[in-house]
Design brief:
Strand 4 and strand 5 form a beta hairpin. By secondary structure, the protein is mostly beta strands. The chain has no helices and 11 strands.
Length: 122
């Protein structure tokens, strides 16, 4: 599977953004997630979709103002974040993993990554 993110850009605080991650094939057998990494900081999980789309989970930093969703026909993963804050500024990455064990927010458990899309809130 290959992943390509898009939708990043410069947004004012309080604004919204919807990121897309296009997969080269069906991701039904993968756990899908969005991570982000600010300069000089570690890569952190933002939101995940469980295997087979059976559920979602969010990091506390975005819970309540973020939505992760999938279009299983087009093989696209989305991440929408509302009420954007300057601290949301980061490179956002789409990731996939086939292993069933390990924390869903642990980046080391994901073996497929996109190239990232930059989000700047200023």
């Amino acid at each position: 599977v290959q992943l390509v993110e898009s939708g990043g850009g410069l947004v004012q605080p309080g604004g919204s953004l919807k990121l897309s991650c296009a997969a080269s094939e069906s991701t039904g057998n993968y756990c899908m997630a969005w991570f982000r990494q600010a300069p000089g900081k570690e890569r952190l999980g933002v939101a995940v979709v469980y295997f087979g789309g059976r559920g979602t989970d969010y990091a506390s930093s975005v819970k309540g103002r973020s939505t992760i969703s999938q279009d299983t026909v087009k093989n696209i993963l989305y991440l929408e974040i509302d009420s954007l804050k300057p601290e949301d500024t980061a490179m956002y990455y789409c990731a996939a993993r086939s292993r069933p064990d390990g924390s869903l927010f642990d980046s080391s458990t994901y073996n497929i990554w996109g190239q990232g899309t930059q989000v700047t809130v200023s």
